[in-house]
Structures are given as structure tokens and as C-alpha cells.
């Protein structure tokens, strides 16, 4: 596949406090494995992965950002060119959840005139016995800010694929409907050389009026994206950070 052999390229950003597991989520999504000794991100790290939405190859540019305050100015420089992203907190760390609003406000303010599409992600469900943030609190915050909510485990991979594919599907629908447009000088969405597939182009609507699209997972299975009403459920480097 050539560098431009995709229908669209979406640039996504991962935001949240240090040690909530942003890098681990990204590595789990990209490589399908857990790396327990990942070091803290310094500035911004870049990754990429190809997914398929309704038969269309979509290239995801993934920007993993540092959570430490001293890197905040560097991170802000990447907001404007992001079409969407993951707001990540640690379900075992109440403070990381309390800070999500600050991350969201900062991103929205610095991304203007664009409005990135975010999903809220509560990570570390493998440590649920230490939970400090209830699912209800997270779902409420997400619904108040127009986001879907998912709980993940970067350690065992639970829901990690679904989060990225759901976000890609949502952005694809907004692009397809003309709500988000390809713009010169903006890197949030870029068009590749592959024409949009027409074989799976039809839309379905559920009772809430949302569009429904089938997303092809890397495992070869298909998954129908669901909203936040059910909490998104599906059945130099420094000190080391947890998953």
C-alpha cells in the first residue's frame, strides 16, 4: 500500500494526566500487546495505523501527548490540527477524572475554529477493585459534553479496539455528511488516493436518529458502534509508569 492509498486520514490526539495509561492504550491498539515498562512520554510521540470503516481504508495519525504540566505549551500546538481524540483518565485515580474538564476546555479553546470529536475513556478496568470513579459519574460527564464513554484496560486489551474504531466511524460519518470538511492548511482530515467505497455506503438510522455504520475490526469481526447511554460497554524519559 502506498503512502496515499487510503480514503481519508484522521489526525487524533490522546489527552489526559500523566500515568493514566495513554501510551499503553496506544501501544495495545497498534501492536496488540501490553508493555508494562513504558516510560513517561516527553512532549509528543507519533504513531499511525490503518483501520477500515464501511469498506474504506482510514489512516489514523495518532499523537500521544505528555501529561505533565511543563509540556502543556508543547501539547497545545497540536490541538488545532486534530480532528478528534481520546480524553483518558484512570478509574482508580479520582484526581485524573477531575482534571478531564481542564484538558477538554484547553483543547477546545486552542483548536478553534475547529471542534475536535472526543470520546471519554476510563482506563485500568483490570484494577477495578481500586476504583475511585464510578461509571455513572463518568457517563454523566460524557453526556453533558456530548461525548461517548468507554472503559478500557490497556493491560488486557478490553475495549481498546472498540474505542478507536468507534471514533473513526463517528468522524467518518461527519465527514461523509459534510459536517467536517477537508480544508487546505488543516491537517485534521486529509483525503487520500482511494475513492470512497459505494458498496457499504448506505446509512441506517436507529430510534435516536443516529447513523449506524459497520466498522471492520482488525480481528476480522464486525462491530456496530453504540452511544454513551450504555457507558460504551462491550460484553528525556523519566520514571516508569503503570499501565
Instruction: Write down the CATH class.
Output: Alpha Beta
Number of E-type strands: 11
Average pLDDT works out at 79
Oligomer: single chain
Give the C-alpha Rg: 17 Å
Strand-residue proportion:
15-25%
Return the CATH topology. Rossmann fold
| Percent helix range | 10-25%
Note the gap between the termini. Answer: 33 Å
Largest sheet: 9 strands, mixed
Characterize the overall form: globular
Instruction: List the secondary-structure elements in sequence, H or E.
Output: EHEEHEHHEHEHEEEEE
CATH architecture: 3-Layer(aba) Sandwich
Structural class, judged by helices and strands?
Answer: alpha/beta
Spans of 5+ residues with little confidence (pLDDT < 50)? 199-242
**Total domain modules:** 1
What is the assigned CATH homologous superfamily?
A: P-loop containing nucleotide triphosphate hydrolases
Keywords: GTP-binding, Lipoprotein, Nucleotide-binding
Pfam families: Ras (PF00071)
Protein name: Ras-related protein Rab-39B
GO molecular function: GTP binding; GTPase activity
Amino acid at each position: 500500500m502506498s503512502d496515499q492509498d487510503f480514503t481519508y486520514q484522521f489526525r487524533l490526539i490522546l489527552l489526559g494526566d500523566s500515568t493514566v495509561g495513554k501510551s499503553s492504550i496506544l501501544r495495545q491498539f497498534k501492536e496488540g500487546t501490553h508493555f508494562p515498562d513504558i516510560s513517561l512520554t516527553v512532549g509528543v510521540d507519533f504513531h499511525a495505523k490503518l483501520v477500515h470503516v464501511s469498506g474504506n481504508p482510514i489512516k489514523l495519525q495518532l499523537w500521544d501527548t505528555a501529561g505533565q504540566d511543563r509540556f502543556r505549551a508543547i501539547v497545545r500546538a497540536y490541538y488545532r490540527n486534530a480532528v478528534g481524540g481520546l480524553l483518558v483518565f484512570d478509574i482508580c485515580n479520582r484526581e485524573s477524572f477531575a482534571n478531564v474538564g481542564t484538558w477538554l476546555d484547553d483543547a477546545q479553546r486552542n483548536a478553534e475554529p475547529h471542534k475536535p470529536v472526543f470520546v471519554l475513556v476510563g482506563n485500568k478496568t483490570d484494577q477495578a477493585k481500586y476504583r475511585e470513579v464510578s461509571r455513572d459519574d463518568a457517563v454523566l460527564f460524557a453526556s453533558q459534553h456530548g461525548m461517548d464513554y468507554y472503559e478500557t484496560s490497556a493491560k488486557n486489551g478490553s475495549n481498546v479496539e472498540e474505542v478507536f474504531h468507534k471514533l473513526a466511524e463517528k468522524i467518518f460519518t461527519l465527514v461523509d455528511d459534510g459536517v467536517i470538511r477537508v480544508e487546505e492548511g488543516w491537517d485534521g482530515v486529509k483525503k487520500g488516493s482511494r475513492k470512497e467505497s459505494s458498496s457499504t455506503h448506505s446509512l441506517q438510522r436507529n430510534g435516536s436518529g443516529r447513523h449506524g455504520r459497520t466498522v471492520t475490526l482488525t480481528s476480522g469481526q464486525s462491530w456496530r458502534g453504540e452511544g454513551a447511554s450504555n457507558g460504551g460497554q462491550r460484553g528525556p524519559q523519566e520514571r516508569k509508569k503503570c499501565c
